[in-house]
Design a protein that fits this description.
- This protein is an alpha+beta fold.
- It has one domain: Glutaredoxin, CATH 3.40.30.10.
- Helix content is about 45%, strand content about 10%.
- The strands form two sheets. The protein has a five-stranded mixed sheet. A two-stranded antiparallel sheet has the order 1-5.
- α2 links the parallel β3 and β4.
- α1 crosses α8 and α3 runs antiparallel to α4.
- It is globular and about 55 Å long.
- The protein starts with about 20 loop residues before the first helix and ends with a helix.
Length: about 250
Amino acid sequence: MIPDTLPTSVLPPIKVRRLYRRPWFIALALLAALWFGVPALFKLFTPQQTAPGFTSLPGSTSTPAEDALAQVATTDDPTIGSPVAPVVIVEFGDFQCPFCREAAPIMKEVLRRYPEAVRLIYRDFPVASIHTQAVAAAEAANCAARQKADSFWKFHDALYENQDQLGAEFYLALAGSLGLDRDKFQSCLEQHLTLAEIQDDYTSGLEAGVQGTPTWFINGHKAEGALSLELWDQVIVSVLKNEFSR
């Protein structure tokens, strides 16, 4: 009787060629990395998985991330960086948010590292129910910008660096130290001339799914929290690869 199978001892040797050594597999892996790499990085910080350092809007609930890219980049909000940069970052921030303060110097370094590749647009999202000076600080920064466009970023930095001093006296003193017209500045604050613009930013943020601060949109992809410099490096390099591989 002939056995259905040969005894193991007489089976011919089998030459195993590992899959990962095959050229077609390597090419496929590289293609997959380029194709899935960028979305995977952004999915790290969906509403269900925010980065450490995030002030949630009271009453907000996490919702699944949407596939559609958010159209939140504007031309009338404060911006810094190359106007033709391939990576556009829109920040929704709150000047009294401690995590926005933590993120500010990191973003400053990002802009220093990628002066031609990154443009930052700042939009106001004051969480007023938690931060009593958030709206007033946003008005102060925008009133400064009405006099001199570059004064916004000087105000921006000073507000975060002196977050424990936020208040009317500090805003006026800061305006004076920057060479702004104090009377015009105070009138702007008292008449709330920039409040409508701040409200517009806030509403746009809600419509785009912003649930707290800081929230970022990198070429339309949402990320939340005070992201580390290392993660920003990974995201920006991946976005650049994706942009130039089209």
